[in-house]
Give the backbone structure.
Amino acid sequence: MIRRIAAKFVPVALNLYKVRDAKDAAGDFFRSVRKQKDQYQGIWIASADAKLLAAHQNYKSEKTWTQEVLATMDGALKAFGPVAERTPKWTDPLPFRGHGVRPDGGITLAVYNRYQFGGRIEGHGAIDSINLSDKEWQSFATGPLEEGKEWTVPESVARQFCRCLSPASDQSTMPRPNELNPAKITASVRTVENGRAYILFKGEFAAIHKHLFEAGKFSRHEAQLSGVGVYDTVSKQLESLTFIVNGTMHSFQPYDKDAVGVISGVEWRRERPAG
Amino acid sequence: MINIMKNNRQFVLIAAIIACTTRSLAAAPIEVSDLARRLDAIKQPSQLTKWQKIPWMLDLNEAIRVAKDEKRPILIWVSGDDPLERC
C-alpha cells in the first residue's frame, strides 16, 4: 500500500481543525471536496481541480481494513484515468521529532503512548510530539549543575505532558494543558562525573478532561513521571532526555467504572540516530 | 627490548580504554539503563509505524501544485489533530 500511494498519488496529511477553517485556496479546496463526501475525518482522494474521486472513513472490520483502503484507491484511479508511476524521494516530514535542535532553537520530544493491562503493554496506542521552545527545554538543565542541586521545571512546561495522559490516537480523551492539576516536574542532579551530569526528574499529573460535545461528561487521569537527562558539562548542553509517564485513566461516563492503565515513553537525543 | 616496550605500550593503551569505559559506565546511574529499557518496551513496533514511510506532504497548496504538474490525484488524509504529530 505504501508503494502504491507513493507511486500513484500525491499524499498529504492535514489537521482537520486547521484546514477546514483555512482562509486560503487550500481551505476552499478542502471544503469543496468535503462537501462532495461529508465525513468527519479519514481519506479523501480528489483531482487537482477538487473533483472527488473516492473517500473512506469507517471500516467494516480491522481484518479487511487494508483491503477496503486499497479498493478506495483503486476506485479513485479508475475514476481519474491513467497515472504514470513515480518514485518520489522520501524526506522526513518531522525531521526534528525526537532528536536535534530546531532552527528556532526549540526541540520536539517524541511521545509513545500505550495501554497497559495488568502490567502488560497492549494495543496500538498513539504516537505524538511535544514541541518546546528554546527557553522551555532549557529549564530541564539550568546551570551550573552541581551534585544535589534541585529545582522545579516551570508548570507551563509540565502542562505540555498532557499528551502522555491518554493512549487514544485522537484528542477526544486527551486532557488539555489547562485541565491539569497538579502538573509538577522536579529535577535533581544525581551525579556529575567524567564530564557528564545526570539529572533525575520526578513528576506528578492529574486531570479532569471535559467531553468536547456532551456537557457533564468528563474523563479522569492521573500519572507519575520519572526521567533522566544527560548533560555534557564540557560543551554545556543537554545530550538527551528520557521520561516514562505511568498512570491510569477513567473514560467518559458510562465507561468510567474501571481504570485503564496508560504508559508513555518520551525521548529526545541531541544526535540523530544512525540510519 | 623494543618488542617489550611495544607490548607495554599496547597494554597501557588497552588498560586505559578499559578504565575509561568502566568509569563511564559506573558514572551513569541505574535509572539511565532502566528508563531506556522501559522506553524500548513502550515504543510501537516498526510494522505499526510503516505509514511514516509514505512521502507525506503537509501543505495542501503545494500538494495541489504537484498534482497539477504531475497529472495525478491527491490523497488527503485528515484527522482531528496534525496526523503525523498525534496518530
User: Anything to note?
Assistant: The two ends of chain A are 23 Å apart (CA to CA). Residues 29 and 49 of chain A are 8 Å apart (CA to CA). Chain A touches chain B through 78 residues (CB under 8 Å).
